[in-house]
Task: structure prediction
Amino acid sequence: MRTGAVTAAGGYRPGASGYELAPLEPIIERSTLPTSPVFTRAAVSHQDFLTAYTDTARFLPGTLIPMPDPAGQLGAKIIQTSYAWNFPFTESFVIINFDIINISDQPGTASMWGFTTTWSCAT
Result:
C-alpha cells in the first residue's frame, strides 16, 4: 500500500515516508474575474488551481533528498485541477479533478485510489 500524503503531528519532512509524490509543475492559479491579477480567458472558474505530480521522481525536485520507497513506485502522473466560484450558492464547495495517467512501461493493473480530508466548517 502506498500513500501520497499523511498527517503527522510533527508536520511535513522532505523525503519522509508517506510523501511519495513529487511536483512536476508549479501550482498555477488563474481566474475568470477580470479584476483578478491572475485573470485569463483560459480559466474555468473564479479561482482555478492547476498542477501535476508523479511518484517516479528519484529525488525531491531541487534537492538531493531521495524520495521514499522507490521500489513501490506505480509509475503514475497525476494532473490535478480545482475550481471554485464565489457565487452565494457555490461558496460551500470546491470541485477537484484528478487525471491519473500510467506513465510506466507496465500495463495498468487494478488499483484503488482514494481521497480523504478533514472538513472544517464555519458557522
User: Anything to note?
Assistant: The chain has a mean pLDDT of 83. The beta strands are 22-23, 28-30, 47-54, 76-84, 95-102. DSSP finds no helices and five strands in the chain.
